[in-house]
Amino acid sequence: MQQYDLVITGGRVIDAETNFDGFADVAVRNGIVKAIEPEIDQSNADDVLDVSGNWVIPGMIDTHVHVANASDLGRIRGMGLQMVAAAGATTVIDLGGSMDALIEGIKVRGSGVNVASLGYLKPGETVPNSSLSQTTIRGIVETALDAGSIGIKLWAATTHSRRMKQVISLVKLTTLALMSPTTLVPLSPGPVSME
Question: Which of 55, 87, 184, 194 is the most buried (most CB within 10 A)?
Fold first, then answer.
């Protein structure tokens, strides 16, 4: 049995956690990096991957993707997740669709990355055009969080509309906090109590 499953050789290794930036070999066993050294004996590995001319980095986190509702644009759901995985992301936060759409895409095409999602408040779509109340907004937020969303965002394209200003004023009366101009998060972890 070899000491390593894989030795990645010839690449520029960049690791912000250890502040390492240089050309080195990376040895992997059971999916865990076991060594980063200027030169690792390749005979100690089951497989060797020459990545000369490329960067070797820990997985990237993309905090702003729109993949959940891709089929609504005539595309196949879940394809965007494979694209960000191919680009080197290991974790993404989807900011453009429902958990149902995101889960459907993952079931159809797989993921390849860790995925989180924000639900959203958009008048005429997730926010009804009928009369609004704190109870309505609370219900929308609780439904998104119960489905697995990690937070809620306000649809940025509509934040200046009269309807969205009404939504924002109602949100401010709940136990949610505006984290940025377009994102809401619960003040405490877990389901939000809005009593």
Answer: 184
What's the CA gap between 45 and 27, in Å, rounded? 8
Interatomic CA distance for residues 97 and 79, integer angstroms? 14
Least confidently predicted of 15-29, 41-55, 62-76, 126-140: 62-76
How far is the CA of 46 from the CAs of 10, 30, 120, 130, in angstroms? 17, 12, 47, 64
CATH of the domain spanning 4-56: 2.30.40.10
Type of residue at 160: H
- What tokens were used for 139? 């219900």
pLDDT by residue (tens digit) across 158-176?
555 676 677 766 666 554 5
Domain-wise residue ranges, the chain: 4-56, 60-186
Sequence-distant (≥ 6) Cβ neighbours of residue 87 within 8 angstroms: 60
Q: Write down the pTM of the prediction.
A: 0.62
